[in-house]
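[step 3/7] fold_predict: job queued, chain A
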Amino acid sequence: MLKKVRKAIEEFALLSDGDTVLVALSGGPDSVALLAALQMLAEDYGVSVAAAHLNHGLRGEAELDECFVRELCSRRMVPLTVERADIPAWKKAAGRSTEDMARAVRYEFLERAAAKMGAHRIALGHHLQDQAETVLMNLFRGSGSEGLKGMTPMRDGRYIRPFLHIERHEIIVFLTQEGLDCVMDRSNDDRRYLRNRIRHDLLPMIRRDYNRNIDLALARTAAVLKDEDEFFQSRVNRILTAWNIAVAPEGFSLEVEKIRAQPIALSRRLVKHLLERLADAEQGIYFHHVQAVLELAFAPRPSGCLHLPHGLEAKRDYGRLILARPAAGGHDFAFAYTVTIPGELTIRETGDILTFRISGDFDFRRWDGAGDRQGCRERIWPLPGAKARTNCGDSRPETAVQVTATACLDGDRTGMPVMVRNFCAGDRMRPLGMAGEKKLQDIFVDGKIGRSERKRLPLIVADGRIAWIPGLYIHEELKITSETKRILRIDYRRPA
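[step 4/7] structure written:
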């Protein structure tokens, strides 16, 4: 197996002398084997090896997995970074699937761990069977060549997959030969997930009845499509340069006739590429979205508009096709961000800025709920028609609309994780000074908050509950009290 790993490293230039490689270490067989293999080859390539483990909190065995990883790294003298995350709570707050949420949180964690460790590469344990499963999953979703190329040995010049051409049974043999233990994730047998159904049901049936080497065949197909995908992308880049497309912060403007003159494959690729640039995301833009944009561009009517994922719009204006990120107050869009405390967050969809700070050694005796003696004053700007409210529940009308807001919450009761997202139907909270929960829909109506403003206004969500609506309320249970020891201060700013 090591010979194949060495070949992959050299063929795809996965490592460079002096690199620090961070292994995403779950404790499962793939990641344990990857850690051991890279350690064995580290001296040959002049690299050092570190590890990172994220406790997702999704399984009862999560604590045991963390203990196993800590002991393994201690025994092998590998620097280790560990974090814990409450994925169920984050999933609920963000309204995303467990798989999607776990993936997003995992990659955010790996980036933080790499920065902490000074790692230039992040190594993932995906192998040949994982590649086959990924290709089939993308096929079922209707992906084009971009999806069917599957995973690549290196992504973004940072993430590496030295095992991508190694089969699962080779990894097991390697672990046995080296006397390495591992933990098994029982969720890999849960057939509620598409990948597991492909792994345990579909692929074994194909191997048995159609092609026993289906994994290799799919991996080869992915490799061919990767090369073709790179060719198409190079053509798209040439078109962008040749056309001198007008680029603005809000979008792109293209001549319809120039798009029509291209082969349909290039037209699709061009539109998809530009939409993904505007969305700053590689997921969420699918074939039917691209096809709808092209139908709009080629339609006999001279004008029209489409609403797309990530808050994007496609507009036909006679001879031009405009792909745009609409101004705030346009049609509904969605956003959700995980917060790092302390830290600053800029919401890409709106341009709003939030700053989060924790202060300790708070003395309630010096707190009057409205004063500034400790720099903890809660000063909020009112939305049109709303009233400003202090942490003590006082209210007073404001005549001038300001573009800043500050909230001070009980830092020990706020809970984690902290997320920022926009309004979803059915949202509820317990506003400051009230005995029970109230629908946000009713809060907005009472505050005379317009529909467009409701969707762009960021909600601060802590431990699954809405902690603050800027300009309106904080959560009753998070107010400053005589028992408060730490304050979470949140500053909100909407650029003019």
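[step 5/7] annotate
The mean pLDDT is 82.
The chain has three domains: 2-221, 254-324, 336-493.
exit 0
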